[in-house]
Design goal:
364 residues; alpha+beta; Phosphorylase Kinase, domain 1; Transferase(Phosphotransferase), domain 1; 2 domains; six-stranded antiparallel sheet; globular; EC 2.7.11.1
């Protein structure tokens, strides 16, 4: 019965297109490309997607949009609706149940909220089997534009205008407000996990046309083809909070036991120290993000991208910037004493870094 329903739902309204098998730049096989450059890369963990193939009997792969340590991202045409979507094909060892659960929670809420439209939700999900028997989760999303990280990298001196920062901050605060209202902690608010929406579908359609006219550069290996990702244009869309891989579902204002949802210098101290925490950890991450957008530089610099985070230097940076934590805070986790975090002993003089921050001139 289930297979029959799937067959009926996959009745195609458009025929699959033929994509060029030649006319592309063939890249050297010995040069690492895209996902091959990620830490601990293992080719067998990745599903060998090919442009032109049809996934789940309905989604034809059009072009590659991106990659990461846990997935590759592809622009695909739904042959049953003649619509374009972005599909993340995850590595065989990656669990997507949290992302799906968060999306389902968001969809079940009745009523309007200004932050609801600033959250990325899963449109469809399915599994595919790799050549050696591993299964790969696939999540279907509306196509998105560039991330905040990519947007800032493209800006002069990595600076954004006052109006743009205000617009972005408002949208993300509304999105977090909605999540916290229904008891969800995002857990990984950062410039990598916020993208601009694509309001004009022509930008996405142009990718399909470009792939046919000028096929993506690629390198061809015996067991797979590694494609170069299409570079998304910067679009005037609204911010969308994405990637709920580190999220926690619960009740509004619920306190959670001490765990680390993710790593990096956007994490609140409570998470780093594995203390009990609540949704205010997202607010900390939001503040760190705003500093980055305003100044064009990270607030904390102890974490080197691509390397494992080291908690002690990060905590030392926090203390040097805002002063020692209170005794009440330290007593929530005795490990604070083991790594040498000093205790607040009285009123501290204003820190130089704070006085400098008030004089920052925002580019734009």
């Amino acid at each position: 019965m289930k297979s029959l329903l799937h067959h009926l739902s996959c009745r195609k309204t458009v025929r699959p297109r033929r994509y060029p098998s030649k006319g592309f730049d063939l890249l050297p096989a010995d040069k690492l490309l895209e996902e091959e450059t990620t830490p601990n890369y293992n080719a067998s963990n990745y599903y060998p997607v090919k442009i032109g193939q049809v996934l789940h009997d309905k989604y034809q792969v059009v072009s590659k949009l991106g990659f990461g340590a846990n997935a590759t991202v592809w622009l695909c045409r739904d042959l049953t609706k003649n619509s374009l979507y972005a599909i993340k094909v995850y590595t065989s060892n990656h669990d997507t149940s949290c992302q799906v659960a968060v999306s389902e929670s968001i969809k079940t809420i009745v009523g309007s909220h200004p932050g609801r439209g600033s959250l990325q939700t899963v449109k469809d999900s399915f599994q595919i089997s790799g050549a050696i028997g591993f299964s790969h989760d696939c999540l279907v999303f509306d196509p998105m534009g560039v991330s905040y990280t990519q947007l800032q990298d493209a800006a002069p001196n990595r600076g954004l205008s006052n109006d743009l920062i205000y617009k972005y901050a408002t949208s993300i605060l509304y999105a977090l407000g909605f999540l916290h209202h229904i008891g969800i902690i995002h857990g990984a608010v950062s410039s990598d996990n916020i993208r601009l929406s694509v309001d004009h579908k022509v930008e996405i359609t142009n990718i399909e046309a470009a792939e046919i006219a000028h096929p993506s550069p690629r390198k061809v290996l015996p067991d797979r083809t590694i494609y170069s990702s299409y570079i998304m244009p910067i679009t005037p869309g609204s911010p969308v909070l994405c990637n709920f891989f580190a999220s926690l579902l619960g009740k509004p204002r619920q306190t959670h036991p001490g765990i680390t949802l993710t790593s990096g210098t956007h994490c609140a101290p409570e998470m780093v120290l594995k203390m009990e925490f609540d949704c205010k950890t997202d607010v900390w991450s939001f503040g760190v993000l705003m500093w980055q957008l305003v100044t064009g530089k990270p607030l904390f610099r102890s974490h080197i991208p691509g390397q494992q985070s080291n908690d002690a230097p990060y905590l030392a940076e926090i203390v040097s910037l805002i002063g020692p934590p209170s005794a009440q805070f330290l007593q929530r986790n005795r490990s604070c004493y083991n790594i040498g975090i000093p205790m607040e002993t009285g009123p501290s003089p204003p820190h130089q870094s704070h006085s400098n921050a008030s004089k920052i001139s925002i580019p734009g």
